[in-house]
Amino acid sequence: MFGVVFPNRSFPIDISTFAQIDTFHWVLDMNTFVGEAYDQIREVCIFLLNGFTLPPDKALAVYVQSPGSPFVFCGAVTLARPSAVLSLPWPEPGGGAQLQLTAPDAQPLSAKIGVSVEDAAALPSLDVAGEQRIERVALKVGENLFNFMQSFCGVDGSKLVVPMDILDRWFKKFQERAKRDPEYLKGFAL
């Protein structure tokens, strides 16, 4: 059905390495591979195997779980997107509600990667890492604007006062810097 690879860390691993919870859920216990160093595994490549037919409206969703924490959605693959390299945002170990990929009364003693067949339309976004990169870029650009504005601000009571053309001046400076230094914009994407 599917396989996974931990880039630079493993050979391809097929579904037989995962514990099958039920017809649509599988769990990989990270103790098998790295024990307590699970959080050093930053990405996984998941892929559908040749010849496997997943219904067009379904997806294989990937989740991660730190000991004692809920499962966190990482991304998914579909027939239209049969493989993906997904970032693994390991949650902080601790309590919380859990997606039921384990027995309801079981507290996880190790980190796990869960794979689940789900309705594609019900999943947040198949490209979680891409959305996180866009969010980081937006935050860095906003921080750049704020820092620029702050250097021209005056204070009127509890309000900051800025020149009316501050956005135009900032954007012009931003564009000029990007033209002079092609690496400048790459710094926002890190």
From TrEMBL:
Pfam families: Hikeshi-like_C, Hikeshi-like_N. InterPro entries: Hikeshi-like_C, Hikeshi-like_N, OPI10. It comes from the Eukaryota. Residues 18-122 form the Hikeshi-like N-terminal domain. Residues 135-186 form the Hikeshi-like C-terminal domain. Belongs to the OPI10 family. This is Hikeshi-like domain-containing protein. It comes from Stylosanthes scabra.
